């Protein structure tokens, strides 16, 4: 089974989640950070898993651009969509707003993997914004491995 995992990350939470997801899957796994590299043709993979993080209610532009450029193809493939965000109860709505209702409806699974606020990796402006919006002055690490495992189970070769 060939699986493509494409993601975008600003401060590393989605990259950590994507690497954890890759370890849960079997077969030929290709991990692509859309911020640093171009994605291969998704049509050459059996399944495509797409992830990003939510900032101000939207996923990164690189993820949106990938999905827009390959939407017709993705709607004919097995896909999964995931986000890293603090407000997990709004994850599906944020995916629909960012990537479109059709793509989200077509997905085999959607997932919300939690979040991280690592103030040591943020510039001063973004650190201030997070402190105000999240009402916290300390870094927070809340990636949820059990959610990643649940999501991965939908893409296991023996899943029915």
UniProtKB/TrEMBL annotation:
InterPro entries: Flavodoxin_dom, Flavoprotein-like_sf, Protoporphyrinogen_IX_DH
Pfam families per UniProt: Flavodoxin_5
Gene Ontology MF terms: FMN binding; menaquinone-dependent protoporphyrinogen oxidase activity
GO biological process terms held by the UniProt record: heme biosynthetic process
Ranges of residues in domain Flavodoxin: 4-140
Designated name of the protein: Menaquinone-dependent protoporphyrinogen oxidase
